[in-house]
Design goal:
single chain, 224 residues, alpha+beta, VC0802-like, 2 domains, six-stranded antiparallel β-sheet
Amino acid sequence: MPRDNVVKYVKLALMSRPYILESMRLGIVNYSALARLLHGEVEKLAGRKLTQTAIKMAVLRAARELMEEGASARKLAVALVGSEIKLVDKLSVLSLDPSNARTVLEVLKRAASANKYVQFVQGSSAVTLIGDEKLIEEIYRALVKGGVKQYLRNQSAIILTGPHEILATPGVVSIASMALSVRGINLTEVVSSYRDVVFVLSSEEAPRAYSIIRDLVLSLKSLL
């Protein structure tokens, strides 16, 4: 099998482990240990047996290529340092059948003057609203309940508003999401709107999540 194919499979294995990619960027990875960790998975992807040496060589090459392709830690720092971080409480998340979109928009139009926080996301499988709990309750009551897919109460949002650089820097959402996920915090929704990245989660987890994102931004200052 050509070496390039082994590198491709190693990349696939690494891309499913963003925490390892971040450790590689920081230069704290033991590549021999990493090769042993990935050995079985890469063999399954390749469909044949591979030597430990072949895996390690492929890991080293894949690591180099991924680091060249990805945003540098300094670019991430520029995109995040100086960001405004805001915590919004008393939110709900309501996911509906797309057929309800017109009804939702009519209620939102009437509620626009109330100046309440709301995000409207229309996907292929559902229309999702993230917003002030009283506004979402009003919309919920106006609907045919059979169209409701999910209704989550007691939600909060961590809103990260970055500088203009945040728009063109890959990895911003993933590094913040990873900082939360490795600490066991489940995200209900993640929404991007211009320079805002909105992380929605249970209100119980919100204070800890806010501290984690704040500490992440502060830690990146040392790279500038």
